[in-house]
UniProtKB/TrEMBL annotation:
Keywords, sorted A to Z: DNA-binding, Transcription, Transcription regulation
Residue ranges of DNA binding: 55-74
Protein name, as recorded: TetR/AcrR family transcriptional regulator
Transmembrane domains' residue ranges: none
Sequence ranges assigned to domain HTH tetR-type in this UniProt record: 32-92
Pfam families: TetR_C_1, TetR_N
Organism superkingdom: Bacteria
Gene3D superfamilies: Homeodomain-like, Tetracycline Repressor, domain 2
PROSITE patterns: HTH_TETR_2
Length: 263
């Protein structure tokens, strides 16, 4: 989480920005300045260079205006990040004809959120457990809840199921980002690392007292071309998460334990 997101943003100003309840009129003869234009510029900077590179000065330079002009529309970086989060969540697709029933719908939710994190890695640091209360965040939550509406779960269980699926997507995105950052820092891909270390690992582990670890580790490494396969982990984990949810759904349909008691 970024330091700016840990700071207390002014709730009144943040909500006013999120819901665009008031916005100064643009002045001057250049391109019109607005909250939307500032936010989209900030997103471009964060996408390209990361959240640490995002400053109000950097945004103003990219826009070709003075820093104080940006502050006229957005009071600070904490509030700016709130609106950035809401804006990118509004870019998620919301198809109404996803096949496969509730399972297909949840699978689509997971994949779309993973794609969003991969497109905007800074979002992993900008989001917190206290959601931004913007229109796009609420619309996203409402849309995704419909994936599990009318399948026998109570309201708390619906929220818990969605939290579980989104958490899996977010964790997969975080690990994939770690892999990418490690490649940049070392100048070595996971495949190159495995080609160098794999034979030595197999030699030492086979000669030692860990035959099971040697067999499984070697098989997994050869399958993934690395010590860890983020795509495989996401796909395997997603199906197991959905399998677990299917047990709860079937239990509710069969008149199992009172909804809300277990998940």
């Amino acid at each position: 989480m970024s330091k700016e997101r840990r700071r207390k943003a002014d709730p009144a100003r943040s909500l006013a920005l999120l819901w665009r309840t008031q916005e100064p009129a643009s002045r001057g003869t250049g391109p019109a300045l607005s909250v939307d234009r500032i936010v989209r510029t900030a997103i471009e900077i964060a996408d390209a260079d990361g959240i640490d590179a995002l400053t109000m000065r950097r945004v103003s330079e990219a826009l070709g205006v003075g820093t104080m002009s940006v502050y006229t529309y957005v009071p600070g970086k904490a509030e700016l990040l709130d609106v950035m989060v809401d804006a990118v969540l509004g870019d998620l697709p919301r198809p109404s004809d996803v096949p496969g029933g509730w399972r297909g719908r949840l699978e689509r939710v997971a994949r779309d959120n993973l794609a969003l994190y991969r497109a905007h890695p800074w979002l992993l640091r900008a989001e917190t457990t206290r959601p931004v209360l913007g229109p796009n965040v609420l619309a996203k939550y409402d849309y995704e809840l419909h994936a599990v509406a009318d399948i026998g779960l109570d309201d708390v269980e619906m929220d818990a199921v969605l939290t579980l699926v989104l958490g899996h997507a977010k964790n997969a995105a975080r690990v994939a980002l770690d892999v990418a950052e490690l490649e940049r820092e070392t100048g070595m891909t996971d495949d190159q690392w495995w080609q160098t270390h794999g034979p030595w690992l197999e030699k030492f582990m086979t000669a030692g007292s860990f035959p099971l670890a040697a067999r499984v580790g070697t098989a997994a490494g050869m399958a993934h071309g690395a010590a860890y396969g983020p795509d495989h982990a996401f796909e395997f984990g997603l199906q197991r998460v959905l399998d677990g949810i299917s047990v709860v759904v079937a239990d509710r349909a069969a008149g199992g334990p009172e909804p809300g008691k277990t998940l």
